[in-house]
Design goal:
CATH class: Alpha Beta
Number of helices: 11
Mean pLDDT: 88
Low-confidence stretches: 1-18
Structural class: alpha/beta
CATH superfamily: P-loop containing nucleotide triphosphate hydrolases
CATH architecture: 3-Layer(aba) Sandwich
């Protein structure tokens, strides 16, 4: 695991170094439609299959869809935590088919951007405390570069930025990296190229984002992995079944499993 990294203080004056969570991984994207939530689910499943105790936190409160992709109707979710009728630990549900736990959001319940600063800070701190019970906590962030999204990513030991070869995806991923580095120059940001035609094309996409980061930020984000475009992914999502259950030997499943071998190395 990574050691805590000193960061700036948050708006409540709490030293961010104290908030650093060495087993938390944030999953981000500059824009929607790049497979971020699918990757977060499959990544959590791959880690669980390796015997790790994993929590998947659906941090996209307004457009929460972890439960939708898995065909779940959770009795408890984050809306109760936000309105004060539930605690974060009480909202955890066990996803037996995948072998990991989930903190589900609720579509239409509002976004992180609408939460008061103190409420967002409390949610973040409660998640850090809950993380002590797990080997890994994956935070599926909302798409975009809004301050609340970056604030939830702040405590993570590493942030995986999911992107594709689409120009808008690359542009928005660069914006996320730029703002994250401005907030914390020591941030561990890693690129996941999704839906690549093949490994070579995925490498070219990675080199494109690297070139922009090196030219304008003097920074080269490491490559976490390349996930090949795979029709089995669409089939699994339509069936609301994890890819590692429906098609565990598929190309995309193998690619995510390779990323899960050394998630924070």
């Amino acid at each position: 695991m990574n050691d805590p990294i000193p960061l700036k203080s948050d708006k409540q004056g709490t030293p961010m170094a104290a908030l650093q969570c060495k087993n938390m991984i944030a999953i981000a994207s500059g824009k929607g439609g790049v497979g971020k939530t699918w990757f977060a689910i499959t990544f959590a499943h791959a880690l669980a299959k390796r015997g790790k105790h994993v929590l998947l936190f659906d941090g996209d409160l307004g457009l929460a869809n972890v439960d939708i992709q898995l065909g779940l109707t959770p009795e408890r979710d984050l809306s109760g935590v936000i309105d004060g009728t539930s605690t974060l630990p009480a909202a955890v549900i066990k996803y037996k088919e995948g072998g990991f736990d989930i903190l589900a959001g609720r579509s239409g319940s509002g976004s992180l951007a609408t939460l008061p600063t103190q409420k967002l800070s409390d949610l973040r701190n409660d998640l850090i405390a809950l993380a002590r019970q797990y080997d890994y906590v994956l935070v599926d962030l909302g798409a975009g570069v809004d301050r609340p999204v970056r604030q939830m990513a702040g405590p993570a030991a590493a942030t995986y930025v999911v992107l594709t070869d689409e120009p808008t995806s690359l542009t928005d991923a660069y914006a996320f990296i730029k703002l994250s580095r401005a907030a914390n120059p020591a941030a561990d940001l890693r690129v996941v190229v999704n839906m690549a035609a093949n490994a070579n094309d995925g490498q070219k996409t990675y080199e494109t984002i690297c070139k922009a980061c090196e030219n304008f930020l003097n920074y080269k984000p490491p490559l976490a992995g390349i996930i090949r475009r795979d029709p089995k992914v669409r089939e699994a999502i339509r069936a609301q079944t994890p890819l590692l259950v429906r098609s565990p030997s598929s190309d995309a499943a193998q690619d995510v499993d390779a990323i899960a071998k050394k998630p924070l190395a």
